[in-house]
Design brief:
mainly alpha; elongated
Length: about 290
Amino acid sequence: MTLNNSMSITPMSPTQSVWEELQTWVNSRWKNLRRLGHFSVEINTLMNVGNGAGHSWAVIASPSGGSLTVAGWWCILVSSPLFFFLLLRGLWRHLVWSMLLRRIAALRLRLVTTHPDGKAGLAFVGRYPNVFALFVFGVSCVIAAGLAHQLLVESISLTAYGYVMGAWLAIVLALFAYPLTAFSKPLVKLKQNALLVTSAKGTQFQRQAERKLFGENVVSADPGEAEENPDVADPAKQFDATRKMSTLLIDRSALLPVSAAAILPLVAAGATQMPYKELLSISKRLLLL
């Protein structure tokens, strides 16, 4: 037999005892999930199960304690597990793709500094984040829902809201930029070696032109030099292209779609408390427009 409380002699029925144990288990599970992602509206709401604070879409309050509604059970058993499954699945896909990119970067790539894309022929790889734009948008909507709830109950300041926007955008950009940094090492090595070779060829070409104009070189004249390098092409265009070549596959145009997918839901959440002009200004600064 179980008593209702320490100061009462009224026995509690076995059915009510089992039900309250189940409620305690549900509450503890959702408290653990809240530490992983407290921005979720479902988690924040279900935290109030059993406290009798009032009715909600997930809780029916009663004097003896709260109970979950059908929507609350659906959130626990269906929608939240499905969300976390899709979240982990998307992160796993990105992890596998990142590992693949880093292994490709370690291969002997056929790179050329004069490629029209300005990145030795690898510019197309840097556009992969756009594939994950829908995934980022979905996760951002969950975070935005939590932010909107916190703003409505005034438990978060507008300054903290701006910090959250900046931090979330930084996390998203870092997540997609990190795999591309594996290509920086071969690109830097290519650029350095190409500059050395074209610089040497440029010296040979200019000394050849000097000999044709003056009959001999002004400094360190060597008759045998003309026989060793009878005809050298002008490497000026190759040198300029190599100097302008980027060693980073990350650029604003490639990251803009995924950045917009990360920011727009949070902007919608902030629109409930902030003027549109101020939100637009913050969004432009975050998107580097």
